[in-house]
Amino acid sequence: MVSPAVNTKKMTMIEGVRNAMDEMLKENEDVIILGEDIGVNGGVFRATEGLHEKYGEDRIIDTPISESGIIGNSIGLAANGFRPIAEIQFLGFIYPGFNQLMTHATRLRQRSLGRFTVPVVVRAPYGAGVKAPEIHSDSVESLFTHMPGIKVVVPSNAYDAKGLLIASIDDPDPVMFLEPLRCYRSNRTEVPDGKYTIDIGRASVLKQGDDISVFTWGAMVMDTMKAIETLEEEQNMSCEVIDLRTLYPLDKETISASVQKTGRAAIIHEAPATGGVSNDVISLINDTSFLYLRAPIQRVTGFDTPVPVYSLEQEYLPSAAKIQAAIVNAVNF
């Protein structure tokens, strides 16, 4: 919650991201940004617009088209005292840099027995539904939740984006900061002036409810909220909605407390079902709250296929009807 005494401004999520980086660049000279077209051009989504003019080319660094180079150089800089923010234009482009993350960023603290840390943030927009070409719409967040040593953060609005990004830049270890494309300019939220942080690993209860706990993240937060609003108008049920915000580490306490209250759960994400983060949420629920369950846990996900061409994107993404059907199935079990 934002205190009434704090000055705020309504921002889109991309503005919240930019504002967070601006705050940290101003506060700490060791913060730098690396990425393709992020300088004079301001980035493909204008996340760094105006920062090159304000902080100069030594801190807002245009790189060649080399994701492995961007991430590899950022790791080296981080190990030597800088706090780099590496921008990957789309999450689907990160695969050439995957080795740098898995082999070095996540292991250097352990490998050096704590002598070196890697305070690097890797920012990447992701997700389908914006009519982008192939590889631009991948939702592969679970690739990174399976990397011990790196945190995975996914905001869904400007307020969370700013607070979580500042916390990520302050963190002594690597953070994957995934930005849902559909959330960039889809809504505005009140964002406080100045620096504030949101704890990494803390979920947000968006709506209290009694009949079922609905867990989601990223762009599916707004889709889920809309589907539930319509459902509750039509049927006599009460849904609790939780935006996980951090996919690793998961907020064990909030997840288990909610399920123990409602006795039912549904998990909504646009990534493929197999290997999705929903499996980790289900395991957590089974470990902590199995005897509280009154119905099988429901999942609504994307398909186990690559994201299709844009004419079929809406068929791929979880729809309001599918979300509503899963909730009804659980509540009426």
Question: Concise description?
Answer:
Residues 11-186 form the Transketolase-like pyrimidine-binding domain. The chain is of the alpha/beta class.
Q: Which key terms come to mind for this protein?
A:
single chain; 333 residues; alpha/beta; seven-stranded mixed β-sheet
According to DSSP, the number of beta strands is 14
Strand share of the residues? 15-25%
- Total count of domains: 2
Please state how the strands of the largest beta sheet are arranged side by side: 3-2-4-5-7-6-12
**Structural shape:** globular
The CATH homologous superfamily of the largest domain corresponds to Thiamin diphosphate (ThDP)-binding fold, Pyr/PP domains
Q: What features would you describe in this structure?
A:
This is Pyruvate dehydrogenase E1 component beta subunit. One of its GO terms (molecular function) is oxidoreductase activity. It holds the Pfam family Transket_pyr. Its cofactor is thiamine diphosphate. This protein has 333 residues and is α/β, with parallel strands linked by helices. Helices cover 35% and strands 20% of the residues. The chain has helices at residues 13-27, 51-55, 67-79, 98-105, 108-111, 142-145, 158-170, 220-234, 252-262, 277-289, 313-316, 320-331, and strands spanning 8-11, 31-35, 60-62, 83-87, 121-126, 151-153, 175-180, 189-192, 204-207, 212-216, 239-243, 246-248, 265-272, 298-302. The longest helix is centred in the N-terminal third of the chain and has 15 residues, at 13-27. The model has no long low-confidence stretch (mean pLDDT 96).
